[in-house]
Amino acid sequence: MDDNSFDKNGKAGRERRKRNIALALALGGLVILFYLMSIVQWHGNTSQ
Hints:
Blueprint: H1 3-46
């Protein structure tokens, strides 16, 4: 294995890690959004 192929694998691994982190943050944001929306809806139903 030469240095060039190792660098490609390392670069691909870093890009994959960046995509995984971005996906995790997006999914986490959606979970928080749904959670907050359900709290607001629940609070609105209890005050009526």
